[in-house]
Amino acid sequence: MSKRLHALSLSVLLLVPGSTGHATDLKNVLTDYTLTSWNEKEGLPAGTIFALAQDEDGYLWVGSDAGLFRFDGVRFVPWSSLSSVALPAAPVRSLCAARDGSLWIGFGGARGGVAHFVRGKLQIYDERNGVDPGSVTALLENDGAIWAAGSRGLLRFKNGRWERDEKGLTLSIGGVSSAYTDEHGALLVATSAGVFRRVPAKQQFELVTAASNVSRALVGDGTGHLWTTDPVVGFRKLDDVSSDTRSTERGRGMRLLYDRRGNLWVATGGQGLWRVRAPAGGAQTVERATSLTGLLGDGVYSLLEDFDGNIWAGTTEGLNRLTPRKITQIVDLGIVQGVEALPGSGVWVGTVDGLVEFSETGRKIREWNQLDGARLTALHVDERGTLWVATTRNLSRFVGDRPVAVDLPPSQSPGQIQAITSDAHGGIWLYDQKDGLLRWNGKTLDPAGDALELHRARVIALFTDHTGLVWVAYGDGTISTVATNGAVRTYGRPDGLDAGVYSAIYEDVDGTIWLAANGGLSRFVDGRFTTAHAGPNFPAEGLTVVVGDGRDLWLGTSAGIVRLAVMGFDQALASRPVHFKRYERSDGIAGIPVPLNLGTSNRRVVRAGDGRLWFVTARGITIMDPRAFDDVRPPAPVRVEALVADNVQRPAEDGLALPPRTRTVEIDYTTLDLTSPMKSHFRYRLDGFDQEWVDAGMRRQAFYTNLPPRQYRFIVAASQEDGSWSEPVGVWSFSIQPTFYQTAWFGLLCALAAGLTVYAAWRLRLGQVRKQFALLVGERARLSREIHDTLLQSLVGVALQFDALADGLEPASKKERFVRLRKQVEEYIREARQAIWDLRSPRLERLDLVEALREAGTQVVSGHPVALAFATSGEPQRYSPRVEAQILRIGQEAVLNAVHHAHANEISVELHFAPDTLVLRVADDGCGFEVGGAAHDRHYGLTSMRERAEGVGGTLRVESGVGHGTAITAVVPMAGHA
Questions:
Q1: Hey, which CATH number is domain 1-47+220-325, 1.10.10.10, 1.20.1530.20, 3.40.50.1980, 2.130.10.10?
Q2: Model's pTM, two decimal places?
């Protein structure tokens, strides 16, 4: 909801009572207050505001023709958004925030009625509950009871019921127009018959004074005097002894308020809002604020002073707030060129066409406007209190009350002087746009030193410190110092001056030099410069001036005036968050501090003798008293107001459970600050979702979509006036309920179902594997039977035939040969049978790999004229049966091929054992063949050997050529086979 601020200077009429009339002073406007207004554009529906109240939490309640609204300083929330129980369709005429934290609401119209809002619940009372019909004009708490004044009389609510109390009212009583509790706790009511008082000890009403006009309001001034207002007299003192009602001001009075500052406020029905100063005695001063001076309407029907001392006025056109200013403005001076403080007291303000001297507090002392059409270009007050003034015509100094022109050399053009300072020897330093930096010693005007640095760029600022050192700031961002002996030293970026162009120089009480630039703040101490640059951690953007109050630094920036503790500079240097306080137009400053004026280099802020700070700002002069800002208000509480889930508003009850499938969540939060709500910045975190704080700026809503179902805790914090974050923070817990498929039991069922599915799949796969294994075993058994019944039986028959042939052979050598062949066949038979049963060579059961390979090779070459050489290298070791069996078969096949196909004469078998590989090499000197040719493709033994090597993760390499023999190398890695 938007908010428009009208910071206006209100015109007032000053009326000083006398014996026959009043004096009027139109110049005094309510300059002590800043006016802010709200109407339809800011979300407050049109209608006359009849009642205002502030509850114990700090909310402002607004009762009008349009109903009841709650205001937190930013948003107006209608009653329909706060409760599901509707209020009666009638204007809200009165409100009372009770001590128990509840709110009482009185209604207008023919039916009237009262409502009670306590702890989020609403109870409505009407004729059925003893409340007379008719408007309820006042509600207040007195003597432990709630009293309702209306057109039918006076009612009291006590012990849960309404009752009429008219004891002691001997006069005919009609409607009660107003009610008030005085400082002694007595209840006063105003009727058409007069004003009556009920003292708790007496339990009855007594007539105080009869009245010719109905008192619409009563109030006490804290001194024992009562004041009243009626349709004829704006305000008058109600004497509790006599019936003298001497009129003090004519007007249609509606409401009265006596504030904590001793001011009497009068709300009128057509003459605007009045403030009466010194109502109890002395010369009364009446100031009026009307629609012509910024008030939203001249009909004012409600008044309230809140906890912060703001004055709230409800009118026919909207709501107004008058915030007491801690800042003084002077805005009728025209274009201000600069300021200079006099020693001890007083301040000179230089404008384009004149000079004005003020007291320390801002009271005008005298004016000097005798420039005769010349324009003021520079001014300076030296250590003796002499004022030096340069105009486009001459250079003058004030002697007493009159200026005396300085007799400059004829060659000097005084219209070019843009800056002035003085040194410890009484000399005056002048910056001339044409001739550069000059020094006037009272007789002659000489160049300031011989250094070229003093004349190379435009001078932005001149300053002399307590040691007499003259500081010169140039337009190129460099700084020069000129010592009393004329020595010049220039500093720049290499020395740490890298914040831009320096436009102001200031020395604090400790002798530290501060230099303000458009990009930050620099400090000179112990002979070196350090610079804090403007950025998120340091509020020095557009810095134009710097001054101190003896404790803190005050900076003029493009965003307002900033108060900064000196330690804040060190925090900025360390890139840590800096605590500060910024004052803006809403606080009463007369515009932002004026940036560098290209036509002058005058001082734009000074500290007066009483400690007040005088800033040159966009609309004139802003005077700030640092002592007035020492009482830091405690941080306003932060609270969660409402939750909107899927466009349905729900109460912000802690532990609220949102329904399943909630897609959008909007959380409304606020801080109750009715004075400066727009200065509050927020950050929040949703525990259970957010990992870090979310910086919301001034936004007062948090938005989330598609939050998973779980418990959440929303934490929100608001920044305080110094930039730190409030403690404690607002904490609110809620949850989103899961759907049935998001519950734990559903997940458990799903996990169980998934487990059963996996188990069933495993059982099915196990059955398939077992079936395949059974088929494999059956096939193996079948093959073993077939081999046994065919090949083995045939081999057995061959062996028997060898026996038969051996018995009839002669000589003995042939017989022995047939016997050897029979034994070999028998060995083949045993080996085949063993391979059938366990797929392992029986040689490897009784021999290691080396001996088994040697025996197999010897058997193959037996009976052939082939020389077999066998060699090993490395440390022999055992390998897995599968690897040894495949290496044995490869070696046996390679030797067999060399004997039967290569017709080799020599065969060498080499077996190399390495830690990570096993290498078998079989080479011969046979006929060889072309690798890759047709003959190679017909060698099925080579294919078998390659498949055996690859079966155990190895490789087989064949090297051969026609007429060059053959070499077969099998390499098997041992990873996983050892």
A1: 2.130.10.10
A2: 0.64
